[in-house]
User: Fold these one by one.
Assistant:
Number 1:
Amino acid sequence: MNMNPLAGIPNPFRQTIVKDAWETLQDVPEIHAQAFQTCCRAFENVRSSRRCDSVLLHGEAGSGKTHLLGRLQRHWTSSPSAGEGGSGNMGRCVFLYCRLQTSPHRLWQHVRKTFVEDLLHRFPDGTTQLQRLVACRFAEGDRKKQRPVTKWLGWIRNPANRDHSGWKRILLPWLEHEAGIGYSLQRVLYHLITGRHVLEAGAWLKGEDSLPEEALALMGLSGNEEGQTEDGARDVILSLCRLASPLMPVAFCFDQIEALQTSKNDEESLFLFGQMGASLFNSSNNALLISCIQSSVMDQFKRAIREADYDRIAQREETLDPLDKNLAQSLIRSRLDSNKDLVRLRSRHSQQPLWPIEPLDLDPAFPSSGAATARKIISFAGALFDKLQTGGSVPLQDSSEFLTKEFERRRDMAFGQDEAESDMSLAHGLPLLAETLGGQWRQQRQPHRDIDLLLSHGDKRIAVSLCNQQNMRSLAARLKRLVQWHSRNKGFKMVLIRDQRLPISRTAVVTRNLLQSLIESGVSLCQPDMETLAALQALRSLISDARSGDLQYGGDAIGPKTVQEWVSRNLQNGLKSFFGEIVGASETLAEDEPELMSAILAVLKQHRVVTLEKLAEEIRQPGPLIEDMVKRHPGRIGWLQGPPPVLFDYRPAEILSSREGDEE
Amino acid sequence: MTEETRKAVKGILKQSHTPKSITQIRKELPRSLRVSSKDLSALLDEMTARGEIFMWPQTRFWDHTPRTTLPQLILELLAKSPVVASSKIKTALKLPLELIQPALKELVDAGRAHVWQPGKTPYFTLLEPRNTALEIILKSLTQSPLTEKELVGWVRKKLPGYQARLLKEHVSYSNQILEHPKYGKCKTRYGLKPPEPGPYLSKAVQEIIAVQRFLAPFHVSLEAIHEAMGRELGLEREARVPSRERPQGETVSPVTERLILETITRLQPPGQKRALVSIRELRRSMNLPKKDFDRAVLCLASQGKVALHHHDFPTSLSQAEREALVQDERGTYYVGIVPKETS
């Protein structure tokens, strides 16, 4: 019996998406070599000119932007660099990879968190970027040049030196005078560098305001009533930049700028990114900004941001072109050579460089322009490989089935997220949920820093505020500001959202009183459970990936519109009722046509989602009349314009019935 | 006056990050050790004489000697202002030139700072002047060739006082920069690539246009003259055969192709040859009939002269938005265009 020699060999083309720049991957240096060189030149320019530089990279979805960032990461953090002041293979920069799947109104906070996570990133030799950075600075400041960087690093990492008096003599003055760092940050860095209270110090540095008083006391700090703000996050980032010298620049790699958008037409988030990038550029002298954006968003990006900001974040521009056939073959060869068993088999076919793939079979992957993206080529080659293994095509599941499985997988993963992560999910996910389900609601510019989302429909306004502070002083301060804002803006319905897992302690009397007074003045409190929050996280990651072209199925990208349509058809009761609770705040109990409303709700109880046509048929009422009713009660019934127009019930039956019971 | 006071003074100066005046030191002394200004001054003089502490200008004291501390202060200043004269350093640090000049000399000798002297006044900088000038020259030439005056202007932004004689000297160090010869009205230029023949042909072009007008009554087109010139110059006809991947039956005049490539360059930010240009913007700037424009763009792509970037979700666009893009025969919509990567 002839066994297929390829059977049992894992398909080397299985991985088509690079998750982040820290991933180790097969690399073909000839691909996007020019863009790589441009980034390297910009990097050297920061070092030599002691000024910031920037590169804007654009490419199609799947063109290899993240992969290129990964190549830069390896090149800058691990390349041996003889003659670089004895730094050996210590790396030459602080590398930061920031995927922009976040709320644009919390951009600085997101960058801060990512910066700190990457600063504490551990390399295979066990050292962190922070330790390497400090060792380099010590070596730079060592006037007698007695110790090279590696020696300093060894000294820093040696637990026996933890209590060495040299720390206080050298480190604290250096942090204060050389880097101009404030007291709290000095203390936190001191703990992190000397290996004390690493957990608490790391959490503080990431911006988690929820540390208990005893943890703060342990580090010699006091609590911050304001909680984390964008300005505060910006200050920390700029301080951390000052830790590094221009000889060891901070490479900020911003990936997926388009993921910041909450809708196709959202230009505000692009504008905010421009502001953030320009501010980083202006306020430091050792930052290299590398920003990646999809080609199809470039037009909108240029329109949305200020010209001066664009100039700062695009000092150099590079395009990642789709690959021609030669580069495509190099890419395929590299993947084929990544598996030892396959290499053994391939050595018997030295005349066929792509064996087991026939080069001619790849032609359909290329459109008439003669070039295709790396992801498309890998995906196509993967399908060919599958075919060679099984002797036929592997049947593809339905894209709806794929989305269901993806949603469930992501939701299950999200069950592990902590309260701080859930808060970020809410900040980014709520506008996406509103965009998906709130067909009738328009999102407006935030009127106040404590209002995270503002929805409007006609003269109805709903102001949503996330109150997930774990530190009761921070929560009380926020509630106090909200009380004042609400008293000045009576026309707004206000909804407070607080993660159900976050109790308000009994001793927090002031906080409780403030919350109570808000509720008494008509403000709603909504407390989503873990299941709802996990579903929201799954929703936001699906839509963000789709927007960046990273949601791929069968070689084709699935767009955000497809995901949103799938979501509105398959939405869980939890998310629907959560959104219903928010927009329901705008509804008054009095109903002008109770019979019609009851009839509509009765049908919606039965079918969760129904077209206008079918509903009109069932209750024997004209469509325009129903549409008018629905549009006058946007907080009770969901409406998607379609075509065809669809109505859905925001609230699951049990909530609806209990509410109706209450009303009676 | 006790030994304790002496120790306390030492402690204060050790912890300090700047030189301190007598009044400042006196204020920081513990109440039990506080002495009159006069006594303290005497003590400080004595300590200075013993070499325990050092006197800084304006009667300030520190345990760091100006000789070792000053170079670091100068380096920090140079990091903020790239090119500085010694008089400016004097003003910024509020220290006498007698102290500053040896420190500067030391830094220059150690290769930590450089002297930049385009005229009478020497400037000090962290940048190595020749390499810096060369880097600026190379960067400014990436977009297009430039004249001597233009190049000097670019370099002066970073190195004040830069002169043409220095440019010639610096250019001679680089084997990447080519001098394009002066010809007729064309001035001497510098570039990274051999000169484009275009500017050198302006007289010849005028002549050809005159010939074409002269022969126009006989229906002799510019294309016919072009072909005749090819024959006269002994060029092989095969050299003009379209590349193998050019779509069959689709030819675009070289003039249109050149026009598109030139417009792309015009729409790119200066010096950014790899910046993506929006197809919509290019179409708006070209004013060509849609069919001709689309065909020319696809032709340029199939010849490998440009790369096209497609739109992933064209269905999310309105019909009018899609119309502004270029569509190929497989239905792929292209949204961006960029001249091909050069190896």
Note: Confidence is low (pLDDT under 50) at residues 237-249 of chain B.
Number 2:
Amino acid sequence: MDTPVIDFHSHAGSWGRYGVDADCDLYLKVMDAAGVDRTCINCIWFGDARRGNDLVMEYVRRAPDRFIGVAFATPHYPEEAVKELERAVHQLGMAYVKIYPDYFGRPNDDPAYFPIYEWVDEQEMAVMCHATYPFDPPGTTIQGRFTALSDRFPNMRWVMAHTAGTLDADAAETARVLPNVYMETCSSRTALGATEFNVERAGEDKVLYGSDMALMDARQQIAKVVTADISRRAKEKILGLNAIRLLRLDGPAKGGVA
Amino acid sequence: MTPSVDLDFRPEVPALDANAALGRRHDRRVAVDDAAGLLAEMDRAGVERALVYAPHAAAFDSAEGNAGLLEAIGDESRLMPQFVCNPTFDDLDETAAQIEAADVRAVRMVPTLHHYPFRSWVVGEWLEWLSARGIPLWLPASYETNWHDGADLDPHAVHETVRQFPDLTVVLCEVHYVQASWAPPLLRSLSNLSIEVSRYVIADGIAQLLGIVGPGRVLYGSRFPEQAIAPQLYHLHRLGLNETDLRAVCGGNLARLLRM
């Protein structure tokens, strides 16, 4: 394959409960074996977002041609969130923003996130988060959620983590109808036919490869795309070309890329 | 320079799937539920043969489900039947006769779903018979359905029970990353325990398992039709194994356990 391979979803930091090791050498070894050129990496495991973002930068500084830093922000500390994003993006050069509402106890369309979104919208950057949550109000739909968010923050782009690893018609339809919403592939379940389902429904331009390293192995996660029954061009787009376009890696970057 | 992704991947060694299901489920419609569909997917992935069990045998009635499995397989030699047994419900003599009549080479027990402790005072007589016959036992680390929470297998019970039957081969299957804290030490402590890796996706986790137990006790499986057949096979081909070890993990170990 001649086109670049970019892993859109990975985490820095250890998680002993699941045997997840933060070792940078392990990352590079797995990336090499998987054929991944660059990995977008975030750290969501510290209440202090600054500390997590600094840990991400240890990876980026160790291998700047292999890692793309991703900024974390938490509304648990609203007085720090935007300030930290300013630092992470404009000083450290991080490429997009990761939020993790599961740790906040409220979904990603909760108004507590709006100050973060207002800032991201101004930067015309992307945010990645889950599309649904265990604490969603009854009747919540993904399309309703992201339509409202897109209307309110029209310059942002959204990546719905894990959705392209599932057979969720609501998620696929959301990505199809909303030009600024994308799907990402990682999932521990490797649902049969998920890549084909989402490419057919959302379109090959709207799906991004992600691994969830180091919780999941990039070699196993990339295989869902590599072995899918879709065209070669679709695979090239999912494995890297869509990420390049989304993050503007081939042109002037908003916020810059480390 | 990173190696290229192989968009034209085909297995380089004979691949045998150690964990597939065949037949309809009661709680949802699966994408492929018949032998023709399974064989088509195996062909697309380059898998030669698969060990298959019936979801109905796990969920409700082992005898009925196992009989349905044989019917679904018919004369297709690429599909090898695995009977589900429930030692708290099934009759050992009757089941043994059915296993021998159908030349079944592997058995699966699902203690988490069937609500019994995996202790010798429940399963001892069955394990004794399996051990004497050289029939390996598959044990899922959990079994999820729409109506069952997928509780973890009790690793202490497995440890205490399996060690009493050193001639019995037990294959721990469907181990997810949530069980990654106890599966490696359990494998290290029981030399007659192997692992099937359809759900073992933690980064570099399979390489670590190989480091602990060696290539002779790690088995490729897909968990079809819940999961696709090819991805874990591709993953195994990217571990940097030599051909002998790759052959063992992708199919040789299963062939040995099933006396093929």
Note: Chain B has a mean pLDDT of 95.
